[in-house]
C-alpha cells in the first residue's frame, strides 16, 4: 500500500443517532420503486405499464438518448403504479413484490476469458450499468468510453454514515468477482480508497487493485476527493466510480448470472428510536423501517445522509445509490431571538456559539435553515471544508454568472455535489451550493456535447 | 413569548402582498426575524445547516466594538475635563459628558442608515441585510466627538447609498461603507475633520480652556514636528489621548480583536498582516530617519491614530477585502505599509489608515484575480505534465 494520504481540511459533524452494528428485525417491504430522478440528466422511456409481471432484472425503463442503458426491477412481482409529477415527468416506477425472488437469467460471466465488450454488454443487459458513474459530472457512465481508471471509495465519512466494513463482511468472494469484472473495463486499473483507521480484511485482501489509505475528516471518504488526491481530473479525462455494495451486485451477476439488488442499509438519525442496519433491496419503501420506530413530531425523512441525501416522505423509497436512511427533526418552528441565544445545543464551525466548549457533544440538528438567505458576505468559509486545490467560492460565482470558460478553468470537472456539500452546510449566507453546482454541471454537459 | 408569536402571526397577513401595510413588508420581516428565527427549512441540498447566520455574525462584530465604544465615551469626557483643567473630575461625570456627546451620534447613524436600508429592501423586495448593524457602529467610532449631527446624517446617507446600495447592497459593495462615510466627511468638510481643535470635545468653542492646552492629536504633533509633546507608547496604547471616538485605545480595540478572532468571525491573516506591514514599514522609516515623522517608534506608530482600529475592524471586512486566502496576506500587508507611508510622507493627511484601506479595497479584486489565475495555471500545468 502506498503512503497514507492525509486530508487536512474538512469537517466531521457530530450527530446523534449512529446505527448500531446489529441487524434490525423489520420485515422486507412489499413495495419497491426506481426513481429516474436519482440519475441526473436522465430522460426515461418506460417499457412497462401497471399490471405487468416483472422479475428481478426485468427492464422498467431505459435512457431515451442512450437506449442500451436500462433500469431494471429489483424484485419479482407486478408493476403497481407509475407516479408522475409536473408535465407528466416520471417520478417513480413502483413494483409490488411477490416475495418469490424470481430473477431473469443473464448467464454467468467467465471473467478470466471475457473481453471488455462482453462484460459491458452483460452489465447493460442486467441493469447494473447505471451504478457505474463517471467523473466529471457524476452521471451514469457512457459504455463506449475508456476510463483512465475506476475508483471505489471503501468508506463513507459523511455524518452517521454506514460502516462499509460491516456491510461487506463475509462477501469477499463476491467483491473480488465484481472487481475482476470491472478490471476488464479499464486499462488504468481499479483504485480503492480505504479508511486508514479501520479498513477491513475484505478490502485489504483484494487482488488486482491499487489501494490508497486516507485519513482525516469528512469528505475524506468521498470518491471525488480521493480521485483529486491520487490523480486529479484534467479536461478530457474520464474516470468511473462505483460504490462497494454495487460492486457486490456485479460480483453476484458474475458468479450466479442474476441481478441481485440486495443492500444493507443503516437506519440512522436522532429521531429513530432504534438505530440499526437492515437487509433490504434497492428502491425499498422505507415505511416498514421507520413506522413505530421514530419519535413524535414533525420529521424529515432522508434517503442518504444529511448532507447529500434526498428528502422523501415517510412512505417514500430508498434512492438507487443510497445505503442509508436518516430521520431528523424538521425544525419548522420559530425560535425566540435564536440568533442571540448562547446556543449550547447548536452546532457551528464558528465559535460564536458556546457549544464549542463541549467538543465531544453529539447534536440532534434539524432541517431549519437557521437564518435567511443573503448575498455572499463571509469569505474563506468554503475553503476550510473543501480539501481540494480548488477555489470553491470563485467556482460557484463562475457558475452563477454562467461563465463557462471560468467554470472549466476553476475545476468544475473535479467536483460533484457531495464534495461541496460541506460548503453549503457552513455557508453563513445559506447559499444552495449543491443546487448551483448541479446547474453548472448541466450547463457544461450541454455545452460539451 | 407564545403570546407575542401569536400576535405576530395575527398581524402578519397585513404585511403580505395585498395587505393593508404591504409597503412595510420588509420592515415587518426585519423585526419578525429579529424576534423569532424564521421557520424556513432546507429545500434542496444539505438538510442541516450551521447555526451561524448573518445576524449572529454581525452581532458578534457589534459586541466586539463595545469596548472601544465604552472607552471612547469615557475618553471624550476625560479629554474635555482635561482641557478645562479639571483632570480630577468624577469618573461618572466624564462618562455622563461623553455619553451625551457620543450616543446621539450613534443614534443618528443608526436611524439614518437603517432607515435607508429598510427603504431599499422594500423597493428591491428582499430581506433587510444586517450589514449596517456593523457600519452603523463603525461610523460614530471613527468620527471626532464634536462632529455636528447633521454631518453624521449626511455622511451616513452618502455611505449607505453611494457606498453600498448602488452596488446592490450588503455583500456587493467595493469599499467599506463606514470608511466611505469617513472619507466623505474628510474631503467635504476638511475644516471640521482635521486640525488641532476638533479632537477634544468643547475645544473649538474655546470656553474656559486652560492656557497652553493643545487638543492636537499625537499624529498632528508628529507632523508639526512637536515630537516632545508625543505621549508615551503606554499612554497611546491605553488611549488617554485626543482622537476619534473609538480609535484612541489600542487596548479596547485589542479586546475586540480577541472576540473577533476567538469566534472566528474576522480573519486573523488580514489582521496580523496589517500589523506586520505597518510595523516593518515603520521600522524601515526608523532606519532612514531623516524626518521627524520617520523617527516615531515603530511600536508607537501602531498605537497612534486609527491604525489599530482600521486593522481590526475595517481591513477585516470580508466584503470589501481580499477573498482568497493567500490574497489576504498581501492585502493586509499592503494596508499596513501604505498606512504608515501615507502618514509619514503626506502632512496633509496624517490619518493614512483610512486612505490605505480604501486604496486596498479598490485593489483587492486585482489581488484575488492574480491568485485565481495562479490556481488556473496550476490546473493547466497539470495537463501538460501528464501529456
UniProtKB/TrEMBL annotation, chain A:
It catalyses: a ubiquinone + n Na(+)(in) + NADH + H(+) = a ubiquinol + n Na(+)(out) + NAD(+). One of its GO terms (biological process) is sodium ion transport. It comes from the Bacteria. Its EC number is 7.2.1.1. Residues 5-97 form the NqrA N-terminal barrel-sandwich hybrid domain. InterPro entries: NqrA (IPR008703), NQRA_2nd (IPR056148), NqrA_C_domain (IPR022615), NQRA_N (IPR056147). Keywords: Ion transport, NAD, Sodium, Sodium transport, Translocase, Transport, Ubiquinone. Residues 264-313 form the Na(+)-translocating NADH-quinone reductase subunit A C-terminal domain. GO terms for molecular function: oxidoreductase activity, acting on NAD(P)H, quinone or similar compound as acceptor. Coiled coil: none annotated. Residues 115-258 form the NqrA second alpha/beta domain. Pfam families: NQRA_2nd, NQRA_N, NQRA_SLBB. Composed of six subunits; NqrA, NqrB, NqrC, NqrD, NqrE and NqrF. NQR complex catalyzes the reduction of ubiquinone-1 to ubiquinol by two successive reactions, coupled with the transport of Na(+) ions from the cytoplasm to the periplasm. NqrA to NqrE are probably involved in the second step, the conversion of ubisemiquinone to ubiquinol. Belongs to the NqrA family. This is Na(+)-translocating NADH-quinone reductase subunit A.
From TrEMBL, chain B:
GO terms for biological process: respiratory electron transport chain; sodium ion transport; transmembrane transport. It is found in: Cell membrane. It is a multi-pass membrane protein. Its cofactor is FMN. The chain crosses the membrane at residues 57-74, 94-120, 132-162, 251-278, 298-316, 328-346, 352-372. It comes from the Bacteria. Its main location: membrane. It catalyses: a ubiquinone + n Na(+)(in) + NADH + H(+) = a ubiquinol + n Na(+)(out) + NAD(+). Belongs to the NqrB/RnfD family. This is Na(+)-translocating NADH-quinone reductase subunit B. It comes from Plebeiibacterium sediminum. The gene is nqrB.
Amino acid at each position: 500500500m502506498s503512503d497514507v494520504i492525509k486530508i487536512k481540511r474538512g469537517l466531521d459533524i457530530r450527530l446523534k443517532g449512529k446505527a448500531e452494528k446489529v441487524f434490525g428485525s423489520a420485515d422486507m417491504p412489499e413495495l419497491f420503486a426506481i426513481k429516474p430522478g436519482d440519475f441526473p440528466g436522465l430522460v426515461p422511456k418506460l417499457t412497462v405499464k401497471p399490471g405487468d409481471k416483472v422479475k428481478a432484472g426485468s427492464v422498467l425503463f431505459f435512457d431515451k438518448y442512450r437506449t442500451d442503458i436500462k433500469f431494471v426491477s429489483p424484485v419479482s412481482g407486478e408493476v403497481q403504479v407509475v407516479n408522475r409529477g409536473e408535465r407528466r415527468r416520471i417520478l417513480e416506477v413502483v413494483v409490488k413484490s411477490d416475495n418469490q425472488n424470481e430473477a431473469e437469467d443473464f448467464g454467468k460471466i467467465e471473467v478470466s476469458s471475457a473481453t471488455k465488450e462482453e462484460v459491458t454488454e452483460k452489465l447493460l443487459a442486467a441493469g447494473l450499468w447505471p451504478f457505474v458513474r463517471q467523473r466529471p459530472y457524476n452521471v451514469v457512465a457512457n459504455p463506449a468510453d475508456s476510463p483512465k481508471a475506476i475508483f471505489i471509495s471503501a468508506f463513507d465519512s459523511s455524518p452517521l454514515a454506514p460502516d462499509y466494513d460491516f456491510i461487506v463482511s463475509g462477501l469477499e468472494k463476491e467483491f473480488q468477482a465484481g472487481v475482476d469484472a470491472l478490471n476488464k473495463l479499464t486499462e488504468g486499473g481499479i483504485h480503492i480508497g480505504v479508511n486508514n483507521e479501520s479498513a477491513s480484511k475484505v478490502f485489504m485482501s483484494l487482488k488486482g487493485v491499487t489501494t490508497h489509505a486516507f485519513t482525516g475528516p469528512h469528505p475524506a471518504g468521498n470518491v471525488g476527493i480521493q480521485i483529486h488526491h491520487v490523480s486529479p481530473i484534467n479536461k478530457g479525462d474520464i474516470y468511473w466510480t462505483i460504490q462497494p455494495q454495487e460492486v457486490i451486485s456485479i460480483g453476484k451477476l458474475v458468479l450466479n448470472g442474476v441481478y441481485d439488488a440486495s443492500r444493507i442499509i443503516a437506519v440512522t438519525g436522532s429521531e429513530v428510536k432504534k438505530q440499526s442496519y437492515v437487509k433490504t433491496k434497492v428502491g425499498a419503501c422505507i415505511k416498514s423501517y421507520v413506522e413505530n420506530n421514530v419519535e413524535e413530531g414533525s420529521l424529515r425523512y432522508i434517503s442518504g445522509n444529511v448532507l447529500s441525501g434526498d428528502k422523501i416522505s415517510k412512505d417514500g423509497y430508498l434512492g438507487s445509490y443510497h445505503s442509508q436512511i436518516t430521520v431528523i427533526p424538521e425544525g419548522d418552528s420559530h425560535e425566540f431571538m435564536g440568533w442571540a441565544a448562547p446556543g449550547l445545543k447548536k452546532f457551528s464551525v464558528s465559535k460564536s456559539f458556546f457549544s464549542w466548549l463541549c467538543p465531544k457533544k453529539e447534536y440532534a440538528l434539524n432541517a431549519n435553515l437557521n437564518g435567511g438567505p443573503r448575498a455572499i458576505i463571509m469569505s474563506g468559509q468554503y475553503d476550510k471544508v473543501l480539501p481540494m486545490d480548488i477555489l470553491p467560492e470563485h467556482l460557484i460565482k463562475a457558475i452563477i454568472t454562467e461563465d463557462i470558460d471560468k467554470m472549466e478553468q476553476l475545476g468544475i470537472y473535479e467536483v460533484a455535489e457531495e464534495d461541496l456539500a460541506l460548503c453549503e452546510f457552513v455557508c453563513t449566507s445559506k447559499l444552495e451550493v449543491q443546487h448551483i453546482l448541479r446547474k453548472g454541471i448541466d450547463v457544461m454537459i450541454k455545452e460539451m456535447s | 413569548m407564545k403570546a407575542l408569536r401569536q400576535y405576530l402571526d395575527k398581524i402578519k397577513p397585513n404585511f403580505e402582498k395585498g395587505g393593508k401595510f404591504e409597503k412595510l413588508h420588509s420592515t415587518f420581516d426585519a423585526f419578525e426575524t429579529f424576534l423569532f428565527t424564521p421557520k424556513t427549512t432546507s429545500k434542496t441540498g444539505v438538510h442541516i445547516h450551521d447555526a451561524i447566520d448573518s445576524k449572529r455574525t454581525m452581532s458578534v462584530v457589534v459586541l466586539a466594538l463595545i469596548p472601544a465604544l465604552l472607552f471612547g465615551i469615557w475618553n471624550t469626557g476625560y479629554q474635555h475635563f482635561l482641557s478645562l483643567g479639571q483632570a480630577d473630575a468624577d469618573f461618572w461625570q466624564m462618562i455622563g459628558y461623553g455619553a451625551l456627546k457620543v450616543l446621539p451620534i450613534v443614534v443618528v447613524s443608526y436611524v439614518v442608515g437603517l432607515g435607508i436600508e429598510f427603504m431599499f429592501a422594500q423597493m428591491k423586495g428582499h430581506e433587510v441585510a444586517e450589514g449596517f448593524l456593523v457600519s452603523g457602529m463603525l461610523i460614530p467610532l471613527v468620527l471626532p466627538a464634536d462632529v455636528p449631527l447633521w454631518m453624521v446624517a449626511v455622511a451616513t446617507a452618502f455611505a449607505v447609498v453611494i457606498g453600498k446600495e448602488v452596488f446592490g447592497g450588503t455583500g456587493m459593495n467595493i469599499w467599506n461603507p463606514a470608511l466611505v462615510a469617513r472619507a466623505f466627511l474628510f474631503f467635504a468638510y476638511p475644516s471640521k475633520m482635521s486640525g488641532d481643535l476638533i479632537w477634544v470635545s468643547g475645544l473649538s468653542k474655546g470656553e474656559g480652556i486652560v492656557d497652553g492646552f493643545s487638543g492636537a492629536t499625537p499624529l498632528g504633533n508628529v507632523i508639526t514636528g512637536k515630537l516632545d509633546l508625543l505621549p508615551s507608547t503606554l499612554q497611546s496604547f491605553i488611549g488617554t489621548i485626543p482622537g476619534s471616538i473609538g480609535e484612541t485605545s489600542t487596548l479596547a480595540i485589542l479586546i475586540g480583536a480577541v472576540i473577533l478572532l476567538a469566534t472566528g468571525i474576522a480573519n486573523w491573516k488580514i489582521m496580523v498582516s496589517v500589523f506586520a506591514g505597518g510595523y516593518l514599514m515603520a521600522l524601515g522609516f526608523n532606519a532612514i530617519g531623516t524626518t521627524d515623522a520617520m523617527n516615531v517608534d515603530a511600536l508607537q506608530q501602531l498605537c497612534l491614530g486609527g491604525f489599530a482600529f482600521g486593522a481590526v475592524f475595517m481591513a477585516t471586512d470580508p466584503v470589501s477585502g481580499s477573498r482568497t486566502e493567500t490574497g489576504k496576506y498581501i492585502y493586509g500587508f499592503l494596508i499596513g505599509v501604505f498606512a504608515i507611508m501615507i502618514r509619514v510622507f503626506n502632512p496633509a493627511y496624517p490619518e493614512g489608515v483610512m486612505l490605505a484601506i480604501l486604496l486596498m479595497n479598490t485593489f483587492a479584486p486585482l489581488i484575488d484575480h492574480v491568485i485565481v489565475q495562479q490556481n488556473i495555471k496550476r490546473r493547466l500545468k497539470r495537463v501538460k505534465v501528464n501529456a
